[in-house]
Design a protein that fits this description.
There is one protein chain. This protein has 354 residues and is an alpha/beta fold. It has 2 domains: 1-99 and 265-354, Isopropylmalate Dehydrogenase (3-Layer(aba) Sandwich); 116-254, Isopropylmalate Dehydrogenase. It is built from 11 helices and 14 strands. It has a 10-stranded mixed beta sheet with strand order 2-1-3-12-11-4-5-10-8-9, with helices on both faces. Strands 6-7 form a two-stranded antiparallel sheet. The structure holds 3-isopropylmalic acid and magnesium ion. Residues 2-349 form the Isopropylmalate dehydrogenase-like domain. The record marks 138, 188 as: Important for catalysis.
Length: 354
């Protein structure tokens, strides 16, 4: 199994290093894991003049799985489009056709106090945001800024074709079958034609899964329900932009965005695994970042790309044990817990794996 390791910028390298420590435990136990590193994002731009060098894209294509850290940084925000770090990640997702983004949101009982929500709202919370990742406003044409009658106009296009909707809907229903058999499709069909089509196709696909309950919510109502009745949700399927926004909102249910892993899949077993959080330049290099989202992303890799279900469960149990022992990075620290840094959190998870 070849893993492309793309740590990227900011806290990306330090959290990815912890996930690699964890994967290394399995390599030492005999799992055939092979790691190859490459540059992506701002560091790649600095080194080569492009955030996604050809060699990095080639490695990502060739690998069985990709472990990605984060990318970006203040100094890159004014670069022309196409050269910004975020564009590299979008290109990898699109070029590899990784259209299905899994963002599980689980309330760890040890962390309910770290969430701004009342504990009673979080008990047993276990939902999955399934975000379509290669369409929508992110990629729709036309786009850009141009002059119209002497004024500048900015344009982006919300675009989905029926096949794109159909394939993500199938993933949603198949995934729900392995969970609690409920799908909530989130759209804005009351205002947007593209979302009216979304709803129509999701309804059509639903007829093939009579054992799965489907409901539809408009995105504004979904944003509210995520805070009001989060335990109600099982699989939430939605488009690229709404999924981006709702997954950051949902992260606060878990106490910190530093706890949220993700997997981006195509039709096969190959996946890109990354923490949902960004590069956090304000805390980069200071041993402050929470590596658990990256470690839990590695667990998703073991499960979804390599079919190593027991290994994945072992990682999740190890994380659980470390949290239960009271160890916390800054983002999830509470009075009475033990504050530790990024590297020590990685070491403790490795120790708990044994
Ligand atoms: C995410 C991020 C990315 C996105 C950015 C970095 C381009 O916010 O993965 O959620 O918008 O998809
Ligand atoms: Mg986001």
């Amino acid at each position: 199994m070849k893993i492309a390791v793309l740590p990227g910028d900011g806290i990306g390298p330090e959290v990815t290093a912890q996930a690699l420590k964890v994967l290394d435990v399995f390599a030492r136990e005999g799992m055939a894991l092979e790691f190859e590193h490459a540059l992506i994002g701002g560091c790649a731009y600095d080194a080569t003049g492009h955030p996604l060098p050809g060699a990095t894209l080639a490695l990502a294509r060739d690998a069985d799985a990709i472990l990605f850290g984060a990318e970006g940084g203040f100094q890159y925000e004014t670069l022309p489009r196409g050269l910004r770090p975020g564009d590299a990640l979008l290109t990898v997702r699109r070029e590899l056709d990784l259209f299905a983004n899994f963002r599980p949101v689980v309330a760890w009982p040890e962390l309910v106090g770290a969430s701004p929500l009342k504990a009673a709202r979080l008990d047993g919370l276990d939902l999955l945001i399934l975000r379509e990742l290669t369409g929508d406003l992110y990629f729709g044409e036309p786009r850009g800024v141009h002059m119209e009658n002497g004024v500048r106009v900015g344009i982006n296009t919300m675009r989905y074709d029926e096949n794109e909707i159909r394939r993500i809907a199938h993933v949603a229903f198949r995934t729900a079958r392995a969970r609690r058999h409920r799908v909530c499709s989130v759209d804005k069909a009351n205002v947007l034609e593209s979302m009216e089509l979304w709803r129509e196709i999701v309804d059509e696909v639903a007829r093939e899964y009579p054992d799965v309950t489907l409901e539809h919510l408009y995105v504004d109502a979904a944003a509210m329900s995520l805070l009001r009745t989060p335990q109600h949700f099982d699989v939430i399927v939605t488009g690229n932009l709404f999924g981006d926004i709702l997954s950051d909102e949902a992260s606060m249910l878990t106490g910190s965005i530093g706890m949220l892993p993700s997997a981006s899949m195509g039709d096969g077993k190959k996946g890109l695994y990354e923490p949902v959080h960004g590069c956090a330049p304000d805390i980069a290099g200071r041993d402050l970042a929470n590596p658990l989202a990256s470690i839990l992303s590695a667990a998703m890799m073991l499960r979804m790309s390599f079919d190593q279900h027991e290994a994945a469960a072992r990682v999740e149990r190890a994380v659980r044990r470390v949290l239960a022992s009271g160890y916390r990075t800054a983002d999830i620290a509470e009075p009475g817990t033990k504050r530790i840094g990024t590297a020590q959190m990685g070491d403790l998870v490795v120790a708990a794996l044994a």
